[in-house]
Amino acid sequence: MSSSSSSGKGPSFRLSSQLSLSRNSYNRSQRGSIILVAMIAVTALVGLGGLTILAVRGGLTSTSHDRHKSVALYAAEAGAAIAMEYLRARVEAQPVYWTSVVAQRNLPAAALLPADLPGNQVEPDAAGLHPVFSPNTNAWYEVEILNNEDDPGFDDGPSASNPLGGGDTDGRVFVRVTGHGPNNATAQIEWEIQSTDNLGTRACNSGGETNDGVAVCGVFSRGISIGGIP
Known about the structure:
alpha+beta, 15% strand
């Protein structure tokens, strides 16, 4: 009887052991799945965090770039205003006009940059100071004055009264100003001006041209017509 009883308990014990092993395997598998899901979630969060950092950094870079470009444009506009005052003070009567500030065939390049124009080509010093701008603005400008190529005096050679040559016989010149800002940012504006010595008043029509199509129209002030300002 004891043998029979012992053999009767054997299958029950084995089944219980198998169930216990199955539950342990299932628990281990479940724990492994949870760890895997957690690792995937952490990886996704790290990726999203990295993308957020890149987006914020890109936004800051873009904002800084825009600010630097704005400073450069501000510098160009300031240089343009100073250039206008400079030319108003130097325009002479027909047929001389701005002969004193142009060069034969607009060469050499250095001759196009008036050294006596306030602040021209002057970079901020080590202390961030500039003769025109506020300290630490990190802005400066370059002003070039060019004769128009269809001027009859464009090829005139040097003379005693005009060492650089290049007479301005039609009272038209171009002004190009390059503004510099932080981080090597630049902005450039260029326009044409014409002496109104023998033009009288020529107002712009609705198409932005002179009514007779002969001369540049624009704002007339102190003997200068400004045209082509972007």
